[in-house]
Amino acid sequence: MESTNINYIPILMQFIFAAGFVGITIFASSLIGPSRKSKIKDANFECGIKQYGNARIPFSVKYFLVAILFVLFDVEVIFLYPWAANFRDLGMDGLIKMLLFMGLLLVGFFYIMKKGALEWE
Questions:
Q1: Do the Cβ atoms of 113 and 106 come closer than 8 Å?
Q2: Are 105 and 78 in contact (CB under 8 A)?
C-alpha cells in the first residue's frame, strides 16, 4: 500500500469540519443567547454565601514550584514503563541508558532537595 498525501484528506476534512462547527457554534450562541446584564447577575456566587474581600488572594510561589516539580518527576516515571515492557529486548545497552537516565533524574532530585524547593517553612 502506497502512502501519499491523498490518504490524509479525510483527516484534513475532519479537522476543518470540527473547527468550523466550533466557530459557528460560538458565533451563533453570541447572536442567539441572552445578553441582559445586571449588577446581581455579574456578581460572583459561591453557594449562597455572601462574598467579602478580594477573591484574588496571592498564592505562594512555593505552591506552584512544588506542583511543577511533581508534574516533572511524574512524567519522568512514565518513561519507565516502555523500558520495563521491553527490558529483555533492549539488552545491556538499554540497561545502561536507563541507569544513566535514572542517575540524571536522581541528580536533579537531590539538587532540588539541596536548594530547599520542597520545604514549606
A1: no
A2: no
H-helix or E-strand spanning residue 9: helix 9-32
CB 105 within 8 A of CB 73: yes
pTM comes to 0.48
- What CA–CA distance (Å, rounded) separates 120 from 116? 9
pLDDT in tens, 16-71: 999 999 999 999 998 998 877 887 777 766 666 776 777 677 777 888 888 888 88
Locate 108 and state its grid cell. 536533579
In the chain, the amino acid numbered 45 is: F
Return the amino acid letter for 22: V
Residue type at position 80? L
Cα(87)–Cα(96) distance, rounded to whole angstroms? 11
Task: Let me know how long the chain is.
Answer: 121
Domain 5-115 falls under CATH 1.20.58? yes
